Amino acid sequence: MIVNCVAYEEGRKLADIPKEDISEYLKRPNCFVWVALKDPEPAELDEMRDEFGLHQLAVDDARKGHQRPKIEEYGDSLFAVIHTLEPKDGELNIGEVDIFVGPNYVLSVRSHSEKSFTSVRARSEREPHLLKYGAGYVFYALVDTIVDRYFPIIDELETELEAIEGSIFNNNTPRSNIKAIYALKQKLMTVKHAVDPLLEATGRLSGGRVPQVCEGTQAYFRDITDHLQRIHGTIEGIRDMQTTAIQVNLGMINLNETEVTKKLAAWAAIIAIPTLIAGIYGMNFKNMPEYDFAYGYPVALVAMIGIDVLLYFWFKKIRWL
Amino acid sequence: MIVNCVAYEEGRKLADIPKEDISEYLKRPNCFVWVALKDPEPAELDEMRDEFGLHQLAVDDARKGHQRPKIEEYGDSLFAVIHTLEPKDGELNIGEVDIFVGPNYVLSVRSHSEKSFTSVRARSEREPHLLKYGAGYVFYALVDTIVDRYFPIIDELETELEAIEGSIFNNNTPRSNIKAIYALKQKLMTVKHAVDPLLEATGRLSGGRVPQVCEGTQAYFRDITDHLQRIHGTIEGIRDMQTTAIQVNLGMINLNETEVTKKLAAWAAIIAIPTLIAGIYGMNFKNMPEYDFAYGYPVALVAMIGIDVLLYFWFKKIRWL
Amino acid sequence: MIVNCVAYEEGRKLADIPKEDISEYLKRPNCFVWVALKDPEPAELDEMRDEFGLHQLAVDDARKGHQRPKIEEYGDSLFAVIHTLEPKDGELNIGEVDIFVGPNYVLSVRSHSEKSFTSVRARSEREPHLLKYGAGYVFYALVDTIVDRYFPIIDELETELEAIEGSIFNNNTPRSNIKAIYALKQKLMTVKHAVDPLLEATGRLSGGRVPQVCEGTQAYFRDITDHLQRIHGTIEGIRDMQTTAIQVNLGMINLNETEVTKKLAAWAAIIAIPTLIAGIYGMNFKNMPEYDFAYGYPVALVAMIGIDVLLYFWFKKIRWL
Amino acid sequence: MIVNCVAYEEGRKLADIPKEDISEYLKRPNCFVWVALKDPEPAELDEMRDEFGLHQLAVDDARKGHQRPKIEEYGDSLFAVIHTLEPKDGELNIGEVDIFVGPNYVLSVRSHSEKSFTSVRARSEREPHLLKYGAGYVFYALVDTIVDRYFPIIDELETELEAIEGSIFNNNTPRSNIKAIYALKQKLMTVKHAVDPLLEATGRLSGGRVPQVCEGTQAYFRDITDHLQRIHGTIEGIRDMQTTAIQVNLGMINLNETEVTKKLAAWAAIIAIPTLIAGIYGMNFKNMPEYDFAYGYPVALVAMIGIDVLLYFWFKKIRWL
Amino acid sequence: MIVNCVAYEEGRKLADIPKEDISEYLKRPNCFVWVALKDPEPAELDEMRDEFGLHQLAVDDARKGHQRPKIEEYGDSLFAVIHTLEPKDGELNIGEVDIFVGPNYVLSVRSHSEKSFTSVRARSEREPHLLKYGAGYVFYALVDTIVDRYFPIIDELETELEAIEGSIFNNNTPRSNIKAIYALKQKLMTVKHAVDPLLEATGRLSGGRVPQVCEGTQAYFRDITDHLQRIHGTIEGIRDMQTTAIQVNLGMINLNETEVTKKLAAWAAIIAIPTLIAGIYGMNFKNMPEYDFAYGYPVALVAMIGIDVLLYFWFKKIRWL
């Protein structure tokens, strides 16, 4: 589905144009065309391929989807694959944006993603002095927007880690802690797979030899790279803490086991001692003078209770209870 | 065994030729010969060596088999070793394809592998505009096909990981979970050994100085490299999760131990308390008034049962039962 | 808030100047202006941007804060982000210093940080032969001061590690040990995130092609890099020991469990044996000669006690008690 | 001890020569001398140093032994240290071969190693077209032979890993499993220390700038590098699986503990329940009608046995027994 | 404290000179001065700085001490920091040697270290043909001596590892095993911090562009680098085994726990069964014919003992005892 198809000249919008006119506008100097597709049909992609002269391998990738993030050069044009991440029901929904950039066109293809890029268009059109950089700047604006949308997700993951840290040491929910740590790890991996390859790719747009369409925008791509590096650093930090958290949780589980065993031992002693006394006074020797004492029975009971009270406080003191 | 021996000219099939005529066709300009062997005899390899002028070291590798994946240059020709992976009885069967590529020939040698490459031949012959690139394109088509066959295997491993994740938290099959995690790891290593060296090798065919036979097909080899990088990323992701899974499983086992100990303690208490009461009323003191009460016995029984009922609900409440 | 605004010439202070005069002084040769802001308003930053011609992306970073440490070149000027670390209530408070350096100006922006840089200014003014290097030297002095403030924090972390090492083997506070190890790890990560990116950035100022403003001060920046490498090495060392400490603590917890189980077993035996004897002499066989012995009862009691004493010393000997 | 001292010309053996004549043959063009020493005396090494003009540092290394594998250039000659690995009584015996190679000589010094290199000499003399490459080819042949002798050792380690994998899941020999895993790790490290530095060293002989004596044999050294990479890959694979195996074994030990605890709990219940019943009917209340029932005793016994049978099958069902 | 102050010419000692004459000798061609300080006062360092024209940053480092090992270039002179390691009371005492090397001087500053370098001086003076290389060779001789002193320490660590390996599988000292592993790790880290940065630094003196004072001695510095690499390899090997050892020890602790639990269970059964029998014959049913049997009591006792003997051997057989 075509979402938008607009021609720009000297940083200003010329007109919304029908897709049939694209090739005409492409011929005008200082003019570029920006087309946005959403979950396109194969036929639409083929049309665009013919219109813009896209490379078949890139179009194949866009058609198939589920690519890893990358930015590839095909002659003087670029093909970029970027993941979008949208939280949904506690999971992360992975979408994909494929961007084809040439000297005088930008084609963005959005799939499995709900958030649109109308804000990018609006922002770009508000800044004609930047939009004058041409297709390269639009490319930057798109990537920048997608990358900025990673930040709240990272924040969310940090919050989850803090929640886990809080509950690990409270110790009464080890099972759900393990689950939470594992779920956090899964989300981390999803973000990592979106960020790390992209970081590598944008790095090549900001230093050394730069593709022609990105010339003049290196500082902007360095800014994106910097954002991605920040996200990357945070992810690695969470991963590191999460690895420690899993070991800490294991330690707490084992500690808990020891405490249960101590409790078991303490209560066993408290029950076993009077049982032993009762056993002794259940013996059938003829000659057991206590049997005939008037207070034999109550004294025995008091002894049982007294010993148990002492034991109880002793176990309290050594923290087995 | 010779599977095929065909001469091509300008991207089109000339003819199936007998192996004796190979050297003749090699002399014709714009012509290349594509020979496919399957589990060949040493003598067949020697024949091919003489026909195509292959390097002895490469032929030795092909004869011995069990090489690690690699792409080596010998003068203006290439020698590639690639693993094929075919699932069989829950294990991964490792085969090997050795490919010799020169300016005007392709020799593929398939060993221990059941899937043929007839589809590659068919596809290549349907695209004469690509086949015109010559031996380099055939080489690409072969490698591409083998790499594409890795994807379903990777998908299968992801499914296995998900199954393990599902059953870890159900907790009643820790033994089979451990086995499954270990088996998954073994398969991962097999795929990793097939993919990682190949990734390194194809990377050198798509950028920087490229061997002459691959000139003009760099974009295609970059596409393969990209596929391999995707597989590599997925493998690393599974490995990472599997490492966490093993620790999580250990945590669950220890948690389970604690729960068993708690159950043991709870039931021990439930049995020990009435045993103690029975012990007390088994004492032989003369002066135990309860013995003469009409309802002494039923009251004692009721006390036993009552205390146990209370204990039972108490242990339920603190989740020891 | 403007903390300071001073013009320097030939390494000597000219005058405190109002911000309106900055542009005037910037035109004088051999003269540079050093402005220090603290938690500035957006408007103040914009003013400075216009005064010094700062790049919008850098100003945006300074405005937003929470950047990762970095040193970026914008034309012939530099933009640096550096973290300050100040211990507060047992945690590490992260502040940020953003420094803009051009051929004839230094603008430092301090946020969320309590320690001022008046000492830097004083020290620089005391060494006019160094201050003659210009803005580059001031930049060095600022970075050097911030980095030197990392050392006491690292020392503190080493002390914490030693305290943990001491208490791990005493074994009676495993729970607080785990917490302390985890807290140490958290602080380590904070310092690591401040140090590692900065190390990478300063490394580029001391070797190879160096930005113009830093020319002549390479040896100084190498000194900073060396300090950072020392901190980095110490952090990695603590991290490594902390990983081992967590495993050692787990080992101690499990060892403790075994010791509790041994104690439990020993005491269980000490109680169970006399209970068994009492049970035997509670049997109702007619023909039990012991029942009629005059000393049956005391002998039984002595036997119980004697066996228990033997058991007790036996368990002491094998160290189960 | 001098094992061999032979002069070669144009790839063919000239003669066995006495060591006094070496310098004479060294002067002849197209001629090279190949000397093999075994566990030499210091004096013999000094003689060779003077004969061939070896560097003192290299001779010192050869004298001291216990070097790490390496290939060093001294002017136009090479000095190589390579480990030999020979299995002996279940351990790996580390020997050392030091090779000095110059334009017209090869000196091999074998220490602590039982396998000789007569096969290398025989093979080289059978292939005069290769031996014509001169000292560089002899060097290749020696290294190739040593490296090929690593393969059976690696195979043996793989077999040991498989044996461990088999017995881990059988679970009745955890103690010997741990020992076997540790012993495997020790051997792996030995092989790793032999292979990894050598891999690095041979890599430099096959690509980029190559020492003069190795010119023309790059493809051969690439072949060795490839073999070493295969070994390296296998070692890393075994290491990886061994790390997992140690965790799996720990999991199995803990699982085993749980199973023992479950068995303990089950049998405790089976004994405690009838003990409780016996206790109840050992109470001395006057009013216990069961005491007078004709079948009181057998009914009690049957109840005890019946409950235990039920418990037994219940525990079987929930797999605690 | 000045330990030595000697002038050399053409590889031979000229004279012990007072420090006031240093500048005079520095002017003579082919002459160099070698000064050795030990735990110097700040004033002594300042004197030397003025005498030799040392860089202030380097002198500051030497004054402060506690630097990480490094070799820095200041113009045509070098500044090196190297750690000395001396075992003392089972710990490793870290000292520091700072070396300033210029075209015609060597200044070594030894701190916190007991072993002197008189042997270096003696050795150097015995080899005038090497000492002719000048200050660079003295520098080499000093570094070489310090590095050679690392070897016995590494050997000691290997011996400690072997001792730990021996006692882990004996299993009766898990607590001291953990302590020993941790202490080994601490020492390893100390050596690692001394060796790794130095390895990096010396590597730069043996290949590529080399500082002028080290020209002609590259092969010697490569030799040092090689020694450091050997130490580095050994450290990494010990670290690797130590990581495995800690896991193995954990496994043994858990295995031990299982064995204690098994023993507990076995003895519990051996005591509980006769207790149950005694309980049964303590019941007060009227109709218990056994009570009147003449041999009821002894038969019961024999049954108790018989069952226990059977149980004992059964538990022995299944290795729970």
* Cα end-to-end separation of chain A: 68 Å
Oligomer: homopentamer
Q: Describe the main β-sheet of chain A briefly.
A: 7 strands, mixed
Q: β content of chain A, as a range? A: 15-25%
- Which range best describes the helical content of chain A: under 10%, 10-25%, 25-40%, 40-55%, 55-70% or over 70%? 55-70%
Count the beta strands of chain A: 7
Number of helices of chain A: 10
Spell the H/E element sequence of chain A.
Answer: EEHEHHEEEEHHHHHHH
Largest interface: A-C, 43 and 55 residues
Rg calc of chain A: 35 Å
Whole-number average pLDDT of chain A? Answer: 92
The neighbouring-strand order within the major sheet of chain A is 2-1-3-7-6-5-4
Low-pLDDT ranges of chain A:
none
Basic shape of chain A? rod-shaped
Strand-pairing-aware structural class of chain A: alpha+beta
